[in-house]
């Protein structure tokens, strides 16, 4: 193998669990290929994608016969089912200096995808020689995520996100080894999804052109699966649901006071049962999607920021409360528990926001996953009570809420999901999200608002707990931001005082501050 004298330091983002490297630069053959003994459609498509990502420039230079020519892939399980929380994403990657073959081993095809991403970040184009190299060989990487659930939330209710925008978001997630798209589908402002059992629901969309058909959604879910990304849908209820009233006013308290949803009407729960059934495959109208539109085992039911005044100010609901000897808060508990039971009955684990636990504590089903976003919700208390959690840790000045534009990447980076949680209970913290609430983003600015801060969250969720130095991370995340730009992701400069700001002056991507 020809050894090249020029040397640079290359680092993978997010930092692998363990890695060893050398000091040698090796050449990569112009006819490089991925080798796998069995034809698996998901991997065949991944090889095509990663060939283009890894080798974006035409290679006109000559490469020696003993250069690195093949990445040999070995997989224990070829199952192409939709990934779930428990899907194994571990992999080992070995790149020698004395062979024309590198090796990538994984237990699942989704572990292969993570390994392909790491390999792609190690290959560098030499413009002087029109050839590809790998620096710091030999490489030996043994890698797996610290947390199984690592996601980005997008909000298609406050502003509609076109399908292409959603797919670009999905494209970007595997680059940082993120594996969940949390799709906040509906809110007070709009309900954009087609529901066959209740076809008037999407009358609550922003406009007749800002809607998703069920085929749109099914295609998007498959697009995500091919990239190892789960899609967890959210229908926020009973609050944040005013848009439902456009098509079905009977499930809302009154025309002038339309949320929370009407807790006193069976029609409300019949609609929710049908809606969730189309997502889970338990409704009659899901013949075309027997596993449901959203095959993920989690379904998000919201439950946050519920103001019950419309219940107590509506005579029919007030009468129902009296008949059942409920306070408004008890009716809130009744609602959230009932919809959680609907989801559980359809084979899904319900995810509900902090307020649900804050109000009702251990009265919640243990199947419930508590999504913590409020500083008053004690993560340690939640897991000590036996509940799984998702977290958006670090409130206000270092929040994982990406709409907080003044929160900088390093403040995001130092947040620890298990801060204050005993080591014995940290396994109940499943992971977390960067939350891109949609009040001020649409297709025109979502990417540069999400990235590169989302990369800081990704490393916190993937890499070992002791990878915490912002000084060491800075040059790496700046390089990763440039990688995202090269791949067509509109990531803003890393050190912006305000997220999504433009570069301050002319210059290299690598020097923008």
Structure overview:
- This protein is of the alpha/beta class.
- The protein has 2 domains: 3-143, Chitobiase, domain 2 (2-Layer Sandwich), CATH 3.30.379.10; 151-447, TIM Barrel.
- Helix content is 29%, strand content 20%.
- It contains 15 helices and 17 strands.
- Strands 1, 2, 3, 4, 5, 6, 7, 8 and 9 form a 9-stranded mixed sheet that branches.
- The longest helix is centred in the middle third of the chain and has 18 residues, at 328-345.
- The radius of gyration is 24 Å and the shape is elongated.
- The two termini are 39 Å apart.
What does the average pLDDT come to? 94
CATH superfamily of the largest domain: Glycosidases
Q: State the CATH topology of the largest domain.
A: TIM Barrel
Individual helix count: 15
- The radius of gyration computed from the alpha-carbon positions, rounded to a whole number of angstroms, is 24 Å
Task: Sum this structure up briefly.
The protein has 513 residues and is an alpha/beta fold. The chain has helices at 41-54, 109-122, 163-172, 214-225, 244-247, 266-280, 309-312, 315-323, 328-345, 354-360, 379-384, 409-413, 446-450, 453-462, 470-486; strands at 3-4, 18-20, 24-35, 68-77, 91-95, 101-108, 123-126, 131-137, 139-143, 149-155, 180-186, 230-235, 298-302, 349-353, 369-372, 388-391, 429-436.
